[in-house]
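Input.
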Amino acid sequence: MAEVQGKKVTPTTLEALRPHFDAEHFPQFNRDTLEKRVVALGGSSVLFRGLFVPEVEALNNKGITNLAIVSVSCGTEASSRAKADSFREQGGLYTLHEHDGTVDRFRLIGSITDSIFATDEPAKVYNQIADPRTQVVTMTITSRGYNFKGVGSELDLDNPSVRQDIENPTTPVTALGYVLQGLALRQQAGQEPPIILPLENVSDSGKVIKQALLTMAQERDKLHGTHLAEYVQDQVHVPQTMVDKICPALKDQTLEAERANLAAHGVHDALPVTGEPFGKLVIADTDPRIFDILPFQKLPESNVAVASKEEMHAYEVGKLRMLNGGHRAIGILGLSAGEKIVHETIAKSAIRDFIHGMSRETQQTLPEHADMHKTFSPATVISRFSNSSIQDDLGRLVDNSSGKLLDRIVRPIQHLRENGQNAPHLTFVMAAWFNLLRGENDHGHPTAFKDDNAAKLGFVQAAKEVHAAWHEAKKADPAAQADLTPLLKLKDMQVLLGPLAQDEQFLGDISRQMTSVWKINEQRPGRGTLETLQAVAQEVQPRRDALHAIERTFSKDPVQRCPLPDLVVQSETPAKDRYLR
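Output.
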């Protein structure tokens, strides 16, 4: 592969890089005078660098703050080490390319000044957290990085890495372990703790992550006779937050394409970030200290919003269900149909119409907050998915679905079923995921996504058993339907589905939809997912036509919520005729 040309992004080439950027998109402060006040676990993640760091950069550029960020890589893979090495070589500098077909903006970001690979230097990490000058510790490690149990949000005390950090706290290997040891040193020195700021797509993030810290501290106390849990309970503050920006991780072809974009501007960056221009970080107003340390409110324009408890809940539910849920659905359906890139997948009319219908279903489950229905309207989220400037890989959207479908897909179905309504679109996303767990798409080709937890919990093997049993049963009975028993008998699947595991209507729909995909693929290879989702969309078309008439009535007030349960249908079509005819 030919080397991409351009001036390398490093501290020594900083001034030489200046002519390659607009003045307002270049660091306007002396990096050597910044004070290390923020430690970022997962600091090399694209979401952290695409959303949070630019806001700190704006504060520094305006002279409001003089904050440096220390980036910590918590991964253990060779790729994580290579990324940390590149980040260290670049002195924390990186480019941010925000574009959507209208905006096309390149920025050089300079507020990260140090990079630590935690596996090599665990003591350096927790000593930096223990440093009294550190005021904020951010965490952007994804839900998997917290070592939650099964598909839930409780710390898995049987996890070997968690046990290691409880038993050997001075040589931690997990993000929570690094934080706790830093907190323990602060406690021993009689100092106040830093604020722990989660920057995750985790439901009720503040409460969940503080509980995980508290659980680990309690176990440490039992074993070592310390009193860390009391300190965590009484003094450690973990605000609830929600992050909202599409910043896909770049790899292989997408990484090379972005490097080529930069090369055209005369710049070479080993770790570029690309994303949509839109971004929003919402922080609950439970502790004003965070805005004393990070006074985003002093910026004339900021992507950080302060929210009340009710507003925080509304934004979280809207974002996780409409945006993240829609993203995950596109990934599952597109990967099943043999697609690879998000904007190319949503450009297909059948999938776009399906996602619109699914979004309408999901919209009915959002809290009564008018702004959320505008911010996360079906048209808005589909527009964001359609950004052809961003090469977003479908496999990324399907990764680790076993730990993410609960908030994004399952709970909206539960909400609708509890109110006596069906959710055919959302239900089919679950059916497609069950089918995708077998590891192949509609064309019989292997699928490229990672979900180690699904295999560990038995989901993968059970999905294969469901398909094999159906394939055998249809030899004697061509009308045989998928029997979900191998999946439903798994404890963690019961936890994931909750009351839906006993919902005959829901389970019957899942069975029929999976069977439809398999039968169509036998008759017309590669068409199973697409034709079944079209059947689902056609099922609700009459109600969609009625909805459009109502929407025209309310068109003068786009925030007004449509009063009818639009695409949430209670089908009068016999179940056996609803999919494959």
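Residues 307 and 322 are 19 Å apart (CA to CA).
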